[in-house]
Structure formats: C-alpha cells, structure tokens
Amino acid sequence: MTEATATKSNGKTALSDAIRTHFSGDAPITQKATNFAKARPWTSAAFAGVAAIAVLNTLRGR
After folding, report:
1. Number of alpha helices (DSSP H) and beta strands (DSSP E) in the chain
2. Which of 22, 44, 56, 60 could make an SS bond with 37 (beta carbons 3.0 to 4.6 A apart)?
3. Dihedral angle of Cα 42, 46, 49, 51, to the nearest 10 degrees
4. pTM reported for the whole predicted model
5. Rounded-to-integer distance, Cα 46 and Cα 52, Å
6. pLDDT (tens digit, 9 = 90+) per residue, 8-61?
C-alpha cells in the first residue's frame, strides 16, 4: 500500500472515521445527521432500528 492510497485513521474503523467526518464542524446537528444518512444509508437505518427497539422496550416497562 502506498502513501497515496493509505488512509490516516489512527487504528479506528471506517465507521468511526465517517462519524467523525460528518459530525465535526459548526453546522446544526440536524444537517450533520442528514449528511451522515445520505452518505451511509444502511448504517443510519441500523442505528434508527436499534433506537426504535430501545424506545419500545422502555415503553413496555422492561
């Protein structure tokens, strides 16, 4: 792997790099979340599914 193709991720995963890239800066959080959802639709759908399950379990009292 050459220096031009190597990524500088400091040993983190590509997902953590994407989260850091999309959620850094001074933009409103809604714009940051929208940009992340456009860049990684399957990942954001998984996050939404996990959040929905957590809310449903909370409402059921478990």
Report:
1. 3, 0
2. 44
3. -130
4. 0.56
5. 10
6. 656 568 778 877 887 787 888 888 888 888 888 998 999 999 999 999 999 997
